[in-house]
Every structure is written in structure tokens, then in C-alpha cells.
Design a protein that fits this description.
The chain has 279 residues and is of the alpha+beta class. The protein contains nine helices and nine strands. A five-stranded antiparallel beta sheet has the order 5-6-4-8-7. Strands 2-1-3-9 form a four-stranded antiparallel beta sheet. The longest helix is centred in the C-terminal third of the chain and has 17 residues. The termini are far apart.
Length: 279
Amino acid sequence: MNEHLHTALQLASSQIPVLPLRAGKVPFGNCRRCTDNACGGRPNMKNAGPCACPGTCHAWAAATTDPDIIQSAVWRRAWLRASAVAYHPGGAWLTVVDLDNADAVTWARENLPATQTVPTTRGEHWIYLGPMQSANAVRPGVDIKSTMSYARYLGPGTGTMTTLPDTVRALVMKKPAAVRPASLAITVPAPAGGGECRHRTPVYLERGIAMAEQRITDAREGIHADVYRTFLAVLSAHGRCGCLTDVHIGRLFTAAQAKGETVRHCTDAWTNARTRLGL
């Protein structure tokens, strides 16, 4: 059996979605049928579009754990031409901190909690348990690879994998434009009869937002629908009394983006929920 195919099947058996990479550490290009995403979707990803292409031509979105797909005739031809095996970290509930040089590795050792570490050609991959939004160049020599991204598989590495720390999440959250658009500040009528709204009790409001974040984080499939339903529930409880601030909305958007949602998807879901409630 082809070495890359064997590795891919082993990873898939551990529920790590895999895909082949060609020379240059890049995915296989679109097949003729799917050139420029003319097919309209991404294969092997639930709720991701109408494309039924069995090929490997949609980069991270083609990553799969299905052994029948991995061993299909189309994929076998790809494995014969592949130079490496890649995986979708976010799909495996992981985040890879890609440290591209010695200075970046030194920074990580001084600032990040120890975790599973895999040597690369020029630096190291630090792998944490938990997904988040992917981003390049979050600081010199450091990329974040998780949702909607792929990373090369370079072996099991050493050390014990630890939970994704807030220090890593903060590397992406420092970019406010990627979290929420400024136009999302909501203005809603005050509750009838005046008086202080009970939702402004810090514990009550905080618990509601935290539960909404957790609901989004725990979603495993149908992410668009879960995000919309969560936004709808939050607005149903807090949308008419002026309790919600940009900080609360930003937290919900950040949780959704960590699951692979774009700012546009978040904005549309928020707007649709407000429209449905007449806000």
C-alpha cells in the first residue's frame, strides 16, 4: 500500500480528516468539473454545498475520515502523486500554532503553555486541543491553522496535548475587524413601564451569553443553523431591553467564527434573527 495512503487511513481511523498534498505543500487543483468552484460547493463537508465531486480538489474542505473515499479510485491516483499527507485541524477539534523559525519557537516557549510539539523543516508545530479561527502572520513567523485550513502531518510529535489557551485565541482576537463589523451595535426600545431591566443583573446576563457561546462551541454539524438558532434565542431573551452591547455580540461572533463561520455569515444570521423577531 502507498505510504501516504496508509498514513491517511491511520489518521482517519482516529477521526482526523485528511487530504493529499502535491509538491510544494499545496492541495490538488480543481478538477475540470469544479474549476473555479463552478460546481458550487465543497465535497465531503456536511451542509457545505451541492457539489458531489468525489475528488480531492477543494483543499481543506475535501478532507475526510471516510475510508471508502480515501481509498476510492480517484483518491488512489492522487495518493500516488502526493508528496505529503495533510489534515484539517479544525475538523479534528485541534489548533496548530505553526512556528516558522527559531525566533518564533523561542517566543512560544516563553509565552505559551507546553503541549504536543512536532518538528517542521524550519520550526515547530504546537498542537492544542480545541478549534478556533485560522489566521496567518498573527505575529512574526507565527500562523494559526485550525478551522477552514490545513496542516501537513509530520508525525505524532512529543509531549502531552493541552487545551487551547486564551493566549493563542487572543492572537486572532486582536484584529477587531475580523470579529464583528462596527455596524452591529443594536438599538432596541426600552422595556415598557420603565424601571431597571432584570437582564442587566451581571450574573443573569453573563450566564446567558456564556451558555450561548457554549452552545455554538458544542455544535458538531449544521453550524449555520445552530448559530442562527442561538442568535435567535439570545435576541428573544435580551433583544428588547437594550442589555446587549457590542462586547456581548462580539463574543457570540467570535464563538461562531471559531467554528468556521465568516463575518458575513454571522452578520446575516444576526440580521435574520432580528428581522424574525421584529427588532
